[in-house]
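Standup notes, structure subgroup. Blocker cleared on the glycinamide ribonucleotide input:
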Amino acid sequence: MPRKRVAVLISGRGSNMASLIAAAKHDDYPAAIALVVSNRPDAAGLEHARGEGIATAVVDHTRFGKDREAFERALHDVLTANRIDLVCLAGFMRLLTPWLVGQWQGRMLNIHPALLPAFKGLHTHARALAAGVTTHGATVHFVSSEMDSGPIIAQAEVPVLAGDTPDTLAARVLEAEHRIYPQALRQVAGSKL
Ligand code: GAR
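Run returned:
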């Protein structure tokens, strides 16, 4: 089976992107990271991707004002021009309209730093601590038009420890993210789309 061409969409640091790039270096991995796209020209992850010899693109959402669909059409054009099969959102901090989600139904994955359906949205680690949960974690799921919903592909649990701050908890969850995102992409790319 030919390797699926994957685009990773980022807005910042790109550590999940880096974990996908590292996994895709293995000969038996069913996906190749063909493109990294950022909505922010200064995203640190772009530099890492370039250093790995991966094509990068910037679609700066601020150039489109409030016109979300115009931004998404420009993004979609970049993806189709690069013959992308699968899209991985990896810290891509834009809400998507039903139009773009519909274009990539069943072919767009997201990683979220919580055990969905718990703690959708932002500031998940602080909210988990405030709620007093003893287990937290990360979820990879297919993107649907409702934010942080859609069929779950993989989850990993981590313990919440006494004395945790949002930062210490985030670091523990991030390790789990780096483990499950490559596994989830392997599973999706290796199956018949
Ligand atoms: C990750 O923790 C990811 O789960 C989260 O942003 C971080 C990006 O880090 N995503 C969301 O909160 C999406 N709602 P990274 O740029 O180092 O991968």
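Discussed briefly. The chain has a mean pLDDT of 97.
Next: hand off to the docking folks.
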